[in-house]
Amino acid sequence: MEIWLNPACSKCRTAVTELDAAGAAYTVRRYLEEPPTVRDIDDVLTRLDMEPWHIARTADAKGLGVILPERTVDQRAAWIQLLADHPKLIQRPILTATDGTTVVGRDADSLAKVIAAG
Questions:
Q1: Which of 1, 6, 10, 101 is least enclosed, having the fewest CB within 10 Å?
Q2: Any idea where the domains of the chain sit in the sequence?
């Protein structure tokens, strides 16, 4: 299992605590230090069955001086590039189990789903 996290984030710390309590084996990707590529983000979005604006922290865009593209299929690539260029805009934590199950682990149900998948 892999978890994309920001150690300063309380939701990330909660996810790590839950993974540890479940005895789950996982690797940590500090995505602000090791930003995901466009391909990484596209792969995660495919597994999540989401569009890039669904995993974007849009409220943080203004503070980064970022202008958000329209939420349209035509702008999908621009959104993915934006997330790759500004990883602070990516929701966290994102967890991917070895079977490919992927969640944005901000709630107990999502965490339970990915832990069960291993």
A1: 10
A2: 1-31+94-118, 38-91
